Amino acid sequence: xxxxxDAIQAHLPELIAIRRDIHxxxxxxxxxxxxxxxxxxxxxxxxxxxxxxxGGTGVVGTIRGRLPxxxxxxxxxxxxxxxxxxxxxxxxxxxASGRMHACGHDGHTTMLLGAAKYLAEHRDFAGTVQLIFxxxxxxxxxxxxxxxxxxxxxxxxxxxxxxHNRPGMPVGAFxxxxxxxxxxxxxxxxxxxxxxxxxxxTPHLSVDLSIIQAHFVLGLQTIVGxxxxxxxxxxxxxxxxxxxxxxSCNVMPAExxxxxxxxxxxxxxxxIITTRITxxxxxxAKLHGAGVEVFFDWVAAPLVNHDEQTDxxxxxxxAVVGAEAVNANLPxxxxxxxxxxxxxxxPGAFIFVGNGSAPDGTVHGVHTPLxxxxxxxxxxxxxxxVELVQQELRLPG
Length: 397
Known about the structure:
This protein is of the alpha/beta class. It has 10 helices and 16 strands. It has 2 domains: about 5-180 and about 300-390, Zn peptidases (Aminopeptidase); about 185-300, Alpha-Beta Plaits (2-Layer Sandwich), CATH 3.30.70. Helices cover about 35% and strands about 25% of the residues. The strands form 4 sheets. The protein has an 8-stranded mixed sheet, with helices on both faces. Strands 10-12-8-13 form a 4-stranded antiparallel sheet. The protein has a two-stranded antiparallel sheet with strand order 7-14. β3, α3 and β4 (about 125-135) form a beta-alpha-beta unit. The longest helix is centred in the last third of the chain and has 22 residues, at about 265-290.
């Protein structure tokens, strides 16, 4: 296979145009109809065998090498956006109200498309590459939807690889670690109910849900500190408290909801978090004569990189940017990623590619209104995917 750098640079204007078009038209998970159509159209234009509708709006492209070989690998990118109002002011900013590519999935999709274009033109490898364009990574179950739709039965893979951009990491740098690399997590919602009433004249005839939630929120912070080992990282945070109406502050609400997120790296911590949040909510409700409903949505499992594939990923990244620009012991992050579910089924590895900083030197993190994927990272991501194929699907000897 020839050195891909020149070809990648030649394709770069087209790839940037694709990325910015996707950025301007963000779609939430399992609603990526336009994005999936762009992906499928480009793959077919480049002569790639293409299957749509996998797991809802997912797309899989299959490229078979010209050399004899039975091994197959999967390269995965995500396509969905977030329910965030964009504030970048870019000329290609979101045109969809309340929707934004605030996590760089527009860039992830584009980098895998760039690899698809190159690999379709240069099939000098032994085996098969499955290009997996996943919907709904952001908490809507896209990985599991594709798995339930027979992803690896229909598109066999001996190993799978994923990639995510990382703001603040220099463009041209990569980072990865063996073992636990990202957290599992949930969104929880606890709704307390009771008799509302007038907070001034008859509070004694009502159930004061504000007192219950105050004790509940404080009690949540004892779970990690007093129920989970200090050597088993976990986090519980509250992101929403809602009840009553701001126009009627003298009225004690009959319903109040506390919502938040929890992160964990072990099955034991997950079990403790689930049990203790439930016990705390039910105990406080009973103590104060209130009702309660507790809901958990576990949107990600801990992401665990496999040793062999991590070594392959490090070698591929090093071949692209040099070993000095690859951190093979990147600290674990509390972020979640549903590629973890694919890694429970197949061996593989998930790497981070540097997204740099804003022109003024500030770093805009993912899931924020000012974030934007850095187009300068595209050649490095494409080069990494191509080099992975060279590492994994070359002839022995």
